[in-house]
Amino acid sequence: MKHVFKVHFVIAFVSAWFLSGEAQAFSRFRDDADIPTWAVESAYVVKEANIMTGFGDKTFRPSTELNRAEALTILFRAKKIDTNAFPNISENSFSDVSRGDWFSKAVGEGVRRGWINGFPDGTFRPNQPLNRAEWATLVTRAFELTEQANSGFQDVPSNVWYSKAVFALSANELLREKGMKFTPSATVTRADAAWTIAQILTKPRLTGTSKTNDFGAYARRQEARRVAIKPKNFNPNLQGYKIETKELHINVVPREDEILVRKDSDWINMGEVSIKNALEDRVLLHSLEFKFIFEKSNVGPEENFFFRIKGESFAREISVGHTGNVFISGIEKYILPGEEKVFTVFLKPKKDASYYSTKGTGTLSLFQSTASMISNFVKQDSDRKGNYRFAPVGFEGRKFTPMTFRP
User: Is 399 a domain residue?
Assistant: First the structure.
């Protein structure tokens, strides 16, 4: 069988400030470029909470279907319930669940609590993927959601068995979809599950830590993570939707024509990164993080490519190897309210190097950015230091024009 390998090049521009003790370090998933944009933050939220930590090879596998056993385990973790404290499942409970199975206690307790049932033939089918209707029902039962409001989905009639569960998720802002279709028969992926659980974690009333949804503590935890910083008036109930307009707007403007790279190519313009300050405060840009991915490992130079980014009185050039991370400190560019900064990105293969003979396609995308708002605000809690706070960042586009390498 022919295997296709992906080679990840992570190019991050990180300021010395961001690498200081002020920021918390955290590891990336190896396949985070494959995580849908809407699920990126959620994947790291559930990872940090030790609910969905990924696999042994440091991947998250966002498109992998969620099965019945995994769904139960995730929900118990989200509710901070230790499954090890459960009694062993009866040997006669299900023909396909044994006491030695890693999920046996979660299955037994999930059934005992009425979250989920087995099948008439005496099986539980732990490896069977869940569809969206089943996932909605399971989440509703696990978190005892009673508030309901008709979601307006055309494919969710009010008299079907899963309608109340879908309505409950909609009323509690746990559905990402706001259109006409719910697609109840579609399978649930790990990215879908991560998004739902991340929303639940923003609601202390659902997690049992408060009788009301007081989001202050969650917002402070998110700010400490330095990953996706939200403005002070951000409403976590609507997380996942574009509700804030006052932010640092970042957009990748790709080239319209095809990009062809050969081993003797000089610097090739890949496109631009437009950064516009729509905030009322000036912003200090700290970092930009890009991902460079080839569909195969045997494409391009055996050693590396070169990456260059240029802007107003700013330029950086990096040698990009086939593995590992590369950091450059010191972007430190001020962007005034209403001002726009544009950075142009270039790539070129290393000359006088050995090359693979395989043709292949690569993609370059903007993954993350960090910035601070500089203002004379009054410190709101003891955790704040200085006169800055982290700027909310919104991405309109991330991908540059795909490139084709031909030796």
Answer: yes
Domain closes at, from 238, 261, 295? 238
* DSSP state string for 351-400: SSS-B-SB-EEEEEEEEEEEEEEE--PPP-STT--TTEEEPPEEEEE-B-
Residue 218, beta-bridge partner list: none
Could you tell me the CA-to-CA distances from 358 to 211, 284, 363, 368 in Å, in that order?
Answer: 60, 42, 16, 31
Query: What are the structure tokens assigned to 103, written together?
Result: 């999920």
| Stated pTM of the model | 0.51
What is the distance between the terminal CA atoms of the chain, rounded to a whole angstrom? Answer: 25
Residue 3: inside a domain, yes or no? no
Q: Do 254 and 218 sit in the same domain of this protein?
A: no
Q: What angle do CA 188, 79, 225 make, to 5 degrees?
A: 85
Structure tokens at 390: 């982290």
Q: How far apart are CA 384 and CA 405, in angstroms?
A: 48
From CA 167, how far away is CA 385, in angstroms rounded? Answer: 43
The dihedrals phi and psi of 241, each to the nearest 5 degrees, come to: -115, 150
Please say whether the beta carbons of 215 and 236 come within 8 A.
yes
3-state helix, strand, coil in the chain (%, to 5): 20, 30, 50
- How far apart are alpha carbons 186 and 354 in whole angstroms? 47
- The whole-angstrom separation of Cα 391 and Cα 282 is 10
Residue type, 205: R
For residue range 303-355, list pLDDT tens digits in order: 677 888 898 888 888 877 554 454 555 688 899 999 999 999 898 877 766 66
Measured torsion, CA atoms of residues 62, 67, 69, 72, in degrees rounded to the nearest 10 = 70
Cα separation, 52 vs 64, in Å, equals 13
164 occurs within a structural domain: yes
**Together in a domain, 169 and 129:** yes
Return d(Cα 116, Cα 72) in angstroms, integer: 9
Beta bridge partners of 369: 288
Report the domain count for the chain: 2
- Is residue 297 very low, low, confident or very high in pLDDT (cuts 50, 70, 90)? low
Say whether 43 sits in a helix, a strand or coil: helix
79: nearest Cα among 60, 51, 48: 51
Residue 179 and residue 296 in one domain: no
Same domain, 262 and 207: no
| Distance in angstroms (rounded) separating the CA atoms of residues 92 and 78 | 28
Rounded Cα distance between 221 and 370, Å, is: 16
Asked if 233 and 367 sit in the same domain, the reply is no
Domain range enclosing 358: 248-406
